[in-house]
Amino acid sequence: MSESRSVPVQPSPGRREPLQRLLFGGVYGSVLASALAAALGHEGRPPDPGYDALWVALTAVASAAAHGYAHSIAHRTSDDTQVTASAVRSMLSEWPLVAAMVPTMAALFGAHLEWWGEESAIEFALGLNLVALFGWGVWAARVAERRWGASFRVGCVDVLIGLLIVIANVLSK
Q1: pLDDT tens figures, 105-141
Q2: d(CA 170, CA 163)
Q3: What are the residue ranges of helices labelled H in the chain?
Q4: Could you say which DSSP state residue 116 is in?
């Protein structure tokens, strides 16, 4: 009888990069959305959640474009003749960052539609982003073949980043 061993199958480098970008974009987008939501303030003016949702959306797109462009520049070679196409592809591949910010935009848009107040929308978005950060951390650790216990610890560390933002929000108001 031959003994069979379970060998972990590693994705090819081409398949691994999209997963890394997804995980990076998810974490980065969740942290950025939390920071933006926590920073919303109106200094004596009435809340305008529609404007705030648009501001978060534009920041998401600008951040994704800047990160994608910087990534493209970092990998540019002297013989790269398709610079523009490469930069555009790199910017478009940052969609996970924007997607991770959609729940915050949706919560603010819901406040714009008067489903709830803007402060409730911000609290909901911050809470949802904490849950998302935990999930992104666990998923990233599992992809790195960590055991479940270690994966949950990584998720908790990611939540701490979000909690720092929530604490800063509470202290600043």
Answers
A1: 999 999 999 999 999 999 999 999 999 999 999 999 9
A2: 10
A3: 13-39, 49-74, 83-92, 95-112, 118-143, 148-172
A4: S
